[in-house]
Design a protein that fits this description.
heterodimer, A: about 150 residues, alpha+beta, Aldehyde Oxidoreductase, domain 3, 4-stranded mixed beta sheet, 4-stranded antiparallel beta sheet, 8 strands, about 40% helix, B: about 80 residues, Ubiquitin-like (UB roll), 5-stranded mixed beta sheet, 3 helices, globular
């Protein structure tokens, strides 16, 4: 199991080096990193989570991805706490025999994570005034696409 | 029953968590939310729009008919926005 929820930063190069290391059948690695965007003013992004439920749900997503996509390896890391523009937020790294499974699994994981894992983002301006980020319908539609795929099977 | 609140629901309630003893007619998520709204203005404001309230019972997503009881951990939070 490779799911981590942490305040500290992660080293993307190191995660990628360790992904399916020595696995001679893993021909395709796919990496997604989500970072804090500057939405104007150069304020902070504060990420709240539900300790316990968050880790459980990320582990389940990993299990589901491994079942659906024939993965050779999978790593999910998500940060919480106060972050600044360009800081890393989330990392999804998967290894598979071929590229299609690797791309699909990475997309599946980030799409479902965004609508299921209990995290909440709050944007703060430099004066500390904040607003909670609203859930986006486009994220819901992206996640639901994977349920449509379920029905097709 | 242990209640946990997150994000703006936590801010509106004014607490991150509390332990409450609901009356016997609170049997599921729907009746729990109705009772919580009757407690005070903070709870009422936090839970005023049911479409914006997600519920987890013992860390599993729950629906309106999910049963709740004394020993449960019930979390209330807005739609998630991680990633």
């Amino acid at each position: 199991m490779a799911v981590r929820v942490q305040a500290e930063d992660f080293d993307t190069a190191r995660v990628l080096d360790a992904l399916a290391a020595g696995d001679t059948r893993a021909g395709a690695l796919c990496l997604f990193v989500g970072r804090v965007r500057d939405v104007g003013g150069g304020g902070a992004l504060v990420l709240e989570h539900y300790p316990g439920m968050t880790e459980t749900h990320l582990s389940r997503l990993e299990d589901e991805a491994r079942r659906r996509f024939d993965l050779r390896d999978c790593v999910l890391v998500h940060r919480h706490g106060r972050l600044a523009p360009t800081d890393n937020i989330v990392l999804v790294a998967v290894a598979a025999a071929h590229r299609r499974a690797a791309f699909d699994a990475a997309t599946f994981l980030i799409d479902r994570l965004k609508t299921e894992a209990p995290f909440w983002k709050r944007e703060e301006d430099p004066d500390g005034n904040g607003r909670w980020v609203a859930a986006r319908n486009s994220d819901r539609i992206a996640a639901d696409r994977w349920r449509d795929d379920d029905r097709d099977r | 029953m242990k209640l946990l609140y997150f994000a703006w629901i936590r801010e509106r309630v004014g607490l991150a968590e509390e332990t409450l003893d609901p009356p016997p007619d609170v049997v599921n998520v729907t009746t729990l939310l109705d009772w919580l709204k009757s407690l005070d203005g903070g709870h009422a404001l936090a839970l005023s729009d049911p479409a914006m309230v997600r519920v987890a019972v013992n860390q599993e997503y729950a629906g309106p008919d999910t049963r709740v009881g004394g020993g449960d951990e019930v979390a209330l939070f807005p739609p998630v926005t991680g990633g």
